[in-house]
């Protein structure tokens, strides 16, 4: 879960961003939020003009904050990971038991539409060795790992699954179906996630084929 020496050196070579004024920070946050919505709806090829329009800013304002599409996509994905990590940490700290915390986290992560953003990670839009990405990814992995460890330790979560199993299901159930045949797909996401969560509860009602999927399994290339 930690960073390698090469990743640390890469992070050290990347310059710190200057502190923004309050109004500039608000504009930046509006652009990132609007970009997240538009990227979920239309993918990475969407017009930057549409993102600026959705954010309520001019094109010049968008380009003052983000030099190009790749930089904007980078900040959107980092923002989503940070928001999901916030949700995982808050759920574990605030819920009365470990499985309630896991349930709350899964539904909150679904609202971030993580499945719709996954293609951005696999289509070459993201520098996965950038210090921002490494930090956000590590924090998220640690937060989800803590949630699942608490569930196993409490005896509420079946023992034959790992973080990779959870993330595969979460991303697949929040990924829009191909084409436009199911325009109201989002209405079913939380219903199906609830069915999935019921299957995670201990005691397990059946034996799963194969072995538990870890995050390293998901990262491993065939």
TrEMBL record:
Residues 1-17 have a biased composition (Low complexity). Residues 1-21 are annotated as: Disordered. This is TetR/AcrR family transcriptional regulator. Keywords: DNA-binding, Transcription, Transcription regulation. PROSITE patterns: HTH_TETR_2 (PS50977). Pfam families: TetR_C_43, TetR_N. Transmembrane segments: none annotated. Gene3D superfamilies: Tetracycline Repressor, domain 2 (1.10.357.10). Residues 47-66 bind DNA. InterPro entries: Homeodomain-like_sf, HTH-type_TetR-like_transc_reg, HTH_TetR, Tet_transcr_reg_TetR-rel_C_sf, TetR_SbtR-like_C. It comes from Streptomyces cuspidosporus. Residues 25-84 form the HTH tetR-type domain.
């Amino acid at each position: 879960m930690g960073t390698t020496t090469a990743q640390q050196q890469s992070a050290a070579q990347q310059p710190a961003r200057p502190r923004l004024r309050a109004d500039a920070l608000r504009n930046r946050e509006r652009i990132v939020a609007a970009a997240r919505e538009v990227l979920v709806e239309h993918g990475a090829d969407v017009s930057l003009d549409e993102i600026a329009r959705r954010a309520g800013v001019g094109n010049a304002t968008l380009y003052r904050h983000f030099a190009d599409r790749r930089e904007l996509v980078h900040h959107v994905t980092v923002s989503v990971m940070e928001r999901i990590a916030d949700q995982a940490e808050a759920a574990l700290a605030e819920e009365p038991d470990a499985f309630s915390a896991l349930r709350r986290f899964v539904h909150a992560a679904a609202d971030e539409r993580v499945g719709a953003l996954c293609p951005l990670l696999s289509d070459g839009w993201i520098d996965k060795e950038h210090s921002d990405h490494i930090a956000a990814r590590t924090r998220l992995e640690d937060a989800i790992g803590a949630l699942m460890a608490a569930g196993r330790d409490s005896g509420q979560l079946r023992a034959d699954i790992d973080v990779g199993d959870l993330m595969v299901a979460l991303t697949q159930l929040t990924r829009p179906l191909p084409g436009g045949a199911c325009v109201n797909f989002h209405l079913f996401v939380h219903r199906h996630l609830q069915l999935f969560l019921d299957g995670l509860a201990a005691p397990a009602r059946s034996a799963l084929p194969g072995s538990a999927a870890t995050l390293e399994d998901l990262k491993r290339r065939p």
